[in-house]
Amino acid sequence: MTNSTNEQRQMIKVVIVEDFKLTRVGLRCALNENPDIKVVAEFENAIDGIKYVEHYKPDVVLMDLGLPSMNGIEATMKIKEISPETRVIALTSHDRGEEVVAMLSSGASAYCLKDIEPQKLAGVIRDVATGVCWIDAMVAAQALGSLPKVENVGFLPCKNTQEGRVPLTEREFEVLKHLVSGKSNTEIAKELIVSVHTAKAHVCSILQKMCVNDRVQAAVKAVKEGIV
Fold first, then answer.
1. Sorting pLDDT into bands at 50, 70 and 90, what band is 182?
2. Once rounded to an integer, what is the mean pLDDT over residues 196-212?
3. Closest among 141, 198, 136 to 128, alpha carbons compared
4. How many CB atoms lie within 10 A of CB 211?
5. How many CB atoms lie within 10 A of CB 13?
6. Average pLDDT in the chain
7. Nearest CA to 59 among 151, 135, 125, 133?
8. How far apart are CA 23 and CA 131, in angstroms?
């Protein structure tokens, strides 16, 4: 009885959000061959997937980007709002740098292409379930290339680094102020007269530099430490 209970507790519960049935079936069959991974639900659209996550709080969600009604980026943001402990893995054929950055800045813990080997995907799921972030090497370079170039770097005071500084650019500092005021990426883009993808890229860069997991943590840290 004890062994069964321990195994059940260690089981990683996975939800698949993918609009192609054949892909869903293939993923479910491949993943369920792993004794520590169980596909507990699958959905063809993000709205139903979000409702499930809200009620059952699964460990991991495999999220496609090109979904009907609501895309994977928006869905990921909503999932992280309602269930912060649920990890999201982007599993898609989209490899554009802007989409990679947008997905990661929305809260995804990993970005995988659909041609990934089943056992490698299982390994990513295990890593992500423990809090590790992962990005496919095929798209990593494109993601880095889509980040805004750092020009005229302004260093802002910060109390939690050895150097006493957080290397935010002037534009990133503007974006951070908008984050603190609670603006969405779309609203920030309108304020700064840039594309939404560019706004998301700035947010992603800010999160990395401030060593936080999401925009809420960045805003709280900025206020508590007097960065803004």
1. confident
2. 84
3. 136
4. 12
5. 17
6. 82
7. 125
8. 26
How far apart CA 120 and CA 139 sit, in angstroms, is 16
Is residue 43 within 8 A of residue 72, CB to CB? The reply is: no
Q: How far apart are CA 97 and CA 179, in angstroms?
A: 23
- Give the number of other CB atoms < 10 A from CB of residue 75: 25
Other CB atoms within 10 Å distance of the CB of residue 2? 6
- Mean pLDDT over 16-26 rounds to 97
Q: What is the largest CA-CA distance in the chain?
A: 63
The b-or-e profile of 129-162 (16+ CB within 10 A means b, else e) is beeeebbbeebeeebeebbbeeeeeeebebeeee
The helix (H) or strand (E) run that includes residue 96 is: none
Partners of 157 in beta bridges: 165
Q: How far is CA 108 from CA 4, 13, 158, 180, 207, in A?
A: 31, 17, 27, 21, 13
Amino acid type, 218: A
**Rounded CA gap, 20 and 77, in Å?**
22
Query: Of 49, 26, 52, 193, whose CA–CA distance to 117 is shortest?
Result: 26
Q: Mean per-residue pLDDT for 71-87?
A: 94
Could you give the CA distance from residue 145 to residue 149 in angstroms, rounded to a whole number?
9
Question: What residue ranges define each of the domains in the chain, with the CATH number in brackets?
Answer: 2-144 (3.40.50.2300), 156-224 (1.10.10.10)
